[in-house]
Amino acid sequence: MVLEILEYPDKRLFERSVEVEKFDTQLGEFLDNMYDTMIAKSGIGLAAIQVGRPIRALIINLVNDKDIQDKADLLEIINPKFIKKDGEQLHQEGCLSVPGYYEEVKRAASVVVEYQDRFGNRQIIEADGLLAVALQHENDHLDGHLFIEKIGFNKRKKFDKEYKKKPKRKPL
């Protein structure tokens, strides 16, 4: 089922999400719905808070080297904890909650993240490049932050001015 994505400036996007404690079929169904939503909206990542549920859960599904977004490559990351962040990279980011806006953001070049899967099993992932960016971007959502908070004062002023002029979409 495709869920509604919250869009900036919805105040719920700035809530800090709470840890997942119950790993059950409801969580699995919710993760499946998040995936359907992300794919329907042409995203590569989605945090639970973006669909109105303030739990520490995110999904990422990057395009592979055959230019296919294969569900077999889907990462479901629950209760992430960054163990290590190294280096720096600039990457142009966008967000399903800030549609139509893209800007370069400085992130760690490589990360190590401990997390739980949909069944509660502990996992560790090491990532660099776009995957490291996506992990940091989606985790920011869980902490109540959007990428536009990282773009610098002048770019943010310009963004706020342009975004206010943008016609608002009416909910379906």
From TrEMBL:
Membership in a protein family: Belongs to the polypeptide deformylase family.
NCBIfam families according to UniProt: pept_deformyl, PRK00150.1-3
Cofactor(s) the protein requires to work: Fe(2+)
InterPro entries, per the entry: Peptide_deformylase, Peptide_deformylase_sf
Biological function: Removes the formyl group from the N-terminal Met of newly synthesized proteins. Requires at least a dipeptide for an efficient rate of reaction. N-terminal L-methionine is a prerequisite for activity but the enzyme has broad specificity at other positions.
UniProt remark on cofactor binding: Binds 1 Fe(2+) ion.
Organism encoding this protein: Campylobacter porcelli
Residues binding Fe cation, per UniProt: 95, 137, 141
Record-level Gene Ontology MF annotations: peptide deformylase activity
Catalytic residues (positions): 138
PANTHER family assigned to the protein according to its UniProt record, in alphabetical order: PEPTIDE DEFORMYLASE
EC number: 3.5.1.88
Catalytic activity from the UniProt record: N-terminal N-formyl-L-methionyl-[peptide] + H2O = N-terminal L-methionyl-[peptide] + formate
Record CDD domains: Pep_deformylase
Protein name: Peptide deformylase
Pfam family, one: Pep_deformylase
Keywords attached to this entry: Hydrolase, Iron, Metal-binding, Protein biosynthesis
